[in-house]
Structure formats: C-alpha cells, structure tokens
C-alpha cells in the first residue's frame, strides 16, 4: 500500500518547482520589456511648457532713416460745465453738436425759492434802515420844547424852595418852628436842584442824539441784510449756465427737471476753432523743435500743417520719449480723436537692433530689459529664457532702436514677456 504522506509531499514539491520557473520566466520578460521600452514607444514629455511668440532680429545700423511717430487729435480746451448751485433744472437751451459762443446762456435753474427769500430780505432791509434812520435823526421840536419847559418849571420850583428855606431859617432862629420843618425845606431844595440837573442832562442827550454805539449797531444790521441780498443775487446769477468760450457741445449729460448738485456736469464743451495733438518723440528729436515751428502731419492720408506750441518737460520712463504739443486749425474734416502721423528724417548712425515696443520692459538705471530664447540641449522644441539689458537709442512709439548685450541674430520674445522669467523653459509658437 503506497504511503499517502509521501505522495502528498512529492506532489507539493512539484508544484513549488513549477511556480519557481514561472517567476523566473516573468522576470525575464519584464527585464526585456524595460530594456526595449525606448525602442518600442518614444518617451512622452509629461510637463506642460508655456508657449511664447518670438521673432529673429538682425543687427543693423540706424543710418539715415525716416521715423514715423503718431498721436491723436484732441480739443485745445475741454470743459465739463455745471451750475454753481444745486437745484432743479428748469431749461436747457442747446443740445449735442450745437455751436455756442462765449457768454451764451445754456440753461437755467428754478429760482422760485430764491425769489421768496429775496422778498423776505427786502422787508428786513426796510425795517433795519428805518431803525437806523430813527437812531440817527435829530430830536423833534416838541420833544426839545417839552424838555425845556420841564427845566424852566424846575427852576421856578427851586427858586421857591430856596425862598421857603430862607424864611424857615429865620423862623427857626426865632424859635417859631421846630428843626424838623427846617430840615424838610432843605431837603426840598436839594431834591429840586437834582431834578433840575437831570432835566438839563436829558436835554443835552436829546440834542446830541443816539449814542455812537447804538448808531453803529443799527448800521451794522442794515449792512448784514444788504450782504444777504448780495449773496442772494449771486445765487440768482449762478442759476444761469453760461458758456465760458466759443465751443461746440460734445455731450449733453442731463435733461430738464433733473435735480443737480453744485458743480455736477451738465454739458461737455470742446473748442471748435483749435485742435491739439501730443507727439512722443526721442528726446534728441524733441529738442530740435521750437515753439512756432511748423511741421507737416498726415491725417487719414491728407497732409496738414501743424504749429509747435511747446515741448513738455518730462520724459516718459516707459518709452524713453518726450512729449511735444502741436496745434492745428480746426476744419470740417478734423475731429478730436483722429490719428495723426508725423514723419521725421534722422541722420544719426547707431549700431543695434530694431525691436517691437512690446518686447521691452523698464529695467534698472534707465535701461530696459528684453528676453531671448536659447535652445535646450537634446530638446529641439524647448528653449531657455535669457535676460538681456539694452539701452533705447530712439523710438517711433511702435518700435525702438536698442543696443546692449544682444549679439548675432537673437530670437526675441515679442509678446507675453510679463509671464516669463530668466531660466524658464518655454516652447516657441
């Protein structure tokens, strides 16, 4: 009888040996697959790289060139005109596109409340003036006569009192009356004398009129009311909107019935006789233009003569240009906002590169920065961003002639330079 335990053990050993061979075979297949992975399937770049727009630039000398600069026409004067007080708009007399002259009435505010206030102030002024006249007027004849009659009466009473006092002094000496009656007579003389002095002072005050302080107070009240009326008159004037100069209505911002606040724009006025344009030129070119010089400009393909008004004192830190202000006589074909071009020949000879203005960023110490692309070893479609420092020699606004660390025929990033940094890996569109 076969041993069941021995049979079972031999069977298990065979299974174990078979599993070992399977593991070895699987390992060989895995190693072979890894070894030939590069030949079976190309390596896939898993990282996403930014795509930038670049162009190849050639070194060149600026030489004798005609540079073109551009600007936009604008009105020599532009004003947002509004009332100098708040209120309800009663009337507007012009509309958009109308021409207006200096001093012309353009609108009115409701002045009913001002008229009521004026009536009130005029009544106050009448009362204040009457009071001032009263305190300044001389005394009336009957008042002075009455005061003089009172003085004469007191003189008579004083004379009588003194006479009685003399008699009582005689009687008192003879022992005919007591001392009490003598004292009463003396008191009567004193009281009557005081009353007489008071009456005389009252007549003096009456003849002198009101005190200076009282007159000044009355006059001040009159002046206050008059000042209030003058202020009210200013409000009446500020209720009328007047054109400050000959102009054209560019925009009407509100309609009748609107409640406006002080200074709120009602019309936008622009001058209709003179137009201006601001050009940004290289500083050397700007310095060659003096006030009063005339230059030819192109507007929509037609040539016009412009006069140099002045050069602006500041240089733009972004473009390195300086502004020059031109003036042109207005015509039916010229309007604010139109593009103006100026062609200026230059004979300066510089070696460098013409770059689009979009390829430049302000740098340090008055220089500018641009970025170039350098190929990455082993990667035909990847480039490394490198920083270059350049100096702007001249500019046309859209392009700039620069010199600096650029050499050869560099590939310049012309768009999206704010999104990259030196050393970054990018793709080129």
Give an overview of the whole structure.
By secondary structure, this protein is α+β, with helices and mostly antiparallel strands. The protein folds into 4 domains: 51-62 and 350-428, conserved putative lor/sdh protein from methanococcus maripaludis s2 fold (Beta Barrel); 67-76 and 273-346, Efflux pump adaptor protein, beta barrel domain (Elongation Factor Tu (Ef-tu), domain 3, Beta Barrel), CATH 2.40.30; 78-110 and 242-270, RNA polymerase II/Efflux pump adaptor protein, barrel-sandwich hybrid domain (OB fold (Dihydrolipoamide Acetyltransferase, E2P), Beta Barrel), CATH 2.40.50; 139-208, Helix hairpin bin (Helix Hairpins). It is built from 7 helices and 23 strands. The chain has helices at 4-35, 37-40, 112-136, 141-173, 179-208, 212-238, 283-287, and strands spanning 50-56, 60-61, 65-75, 78-82, 87-92, 99-100, 105-109, 240-242, 247-252, 259-260, 265-270, 274-281, 294-299, 302-315, 322-329, 339-346, 351-356, 361-362, 368-376, 379-395, 399-404, 411-415, 425-428. Strand 14 and strand 15 (322-329) form a beta hairpin. It starts with a helix and ends with a strand.
């Amino acid at each position: 009888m076969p041993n069941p335990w021995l049979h079972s053990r031999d069977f298990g050993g065979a299974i174990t040996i078979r599993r070992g061979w399977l593991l070895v075979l699987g390992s060989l297949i895995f190693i072979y697959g890894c070894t030939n992975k590069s030949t079976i399937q190309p390596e896939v770049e898993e990282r996403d790289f930014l795509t930038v727009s670049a162009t190849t630039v050639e070194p060149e000398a600026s030489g004798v060139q005609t540079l073109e600069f551009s600007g936009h026409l604008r009105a020599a004067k532009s004003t947002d005109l509004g009332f100098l007080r708040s209120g309800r708009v009663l009337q507007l007399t012009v509309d958009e596109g109308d021409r207006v002259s200096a001093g012309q009435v353009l609108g009115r505010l409701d002045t009913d409340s001002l008229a009521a206030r004026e009536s009130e102030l005029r009544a106050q002024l009448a009362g204040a003036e009457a009071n001032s006249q009263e305190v300044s007027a001389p005394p009336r004849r009957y008042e002075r006569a009455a005061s003089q009659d009172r003085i004469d009466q007191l003189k008579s009473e004083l004379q009588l009192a003194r006479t009685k006092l003399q008699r009582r002094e005689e009687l008192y000496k003879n022992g005919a009356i007591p001392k009490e009656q003598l004292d009463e007579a003396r008191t009567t003389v004193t009281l009557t004398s005081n009353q007489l002095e008071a009456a005389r002072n009252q007549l003096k005050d009456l003849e002198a009129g009101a005190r200076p302080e009282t007159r000044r107070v009355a006059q001040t009240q009159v002046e206050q009311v008059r000042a209030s009326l003058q202020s009210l008159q200013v409000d009446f004037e500020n209720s009328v909107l007047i054109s400050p100069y000959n102009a054209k209505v560019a925009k009407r911002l509100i309609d009748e019935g609107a409640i406006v606040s002080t200074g709120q724009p009602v019309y936008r006025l622009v001058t209709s006789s003179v137009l201006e344009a601001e050009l940004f030129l290289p500083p050397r070119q700007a310095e060659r233009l003096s006030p009063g010089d005339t230059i030819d400009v192109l507007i929509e393909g037609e040539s016009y003569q412009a006069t140099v008004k002045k050069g602006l004192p500041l240089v733009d830190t972004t473009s390195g240009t300086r502004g020059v202000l031109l003036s042109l006589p207005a015509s039916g074909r010229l309007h604010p906002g139109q593009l103006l071009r100026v062609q200026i020949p230059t004979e300066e000879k510089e070696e460098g590169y013409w770059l689009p203005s979009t390829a430049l960023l302000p740098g340090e110490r008055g220089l500018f920065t641009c970025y170039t692309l350098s190929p990455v070893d082993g990667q035909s479609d990847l480039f490394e961003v490198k920083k270059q420092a350049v100096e702007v020699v001249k500019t046309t606004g859209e392009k700039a002639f620069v010199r600096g660390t650029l050499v050869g025929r560099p590939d310049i990033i012309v768009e999206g330079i704010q999104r990259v940094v030196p050393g970054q890996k990018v793709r080129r569109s």
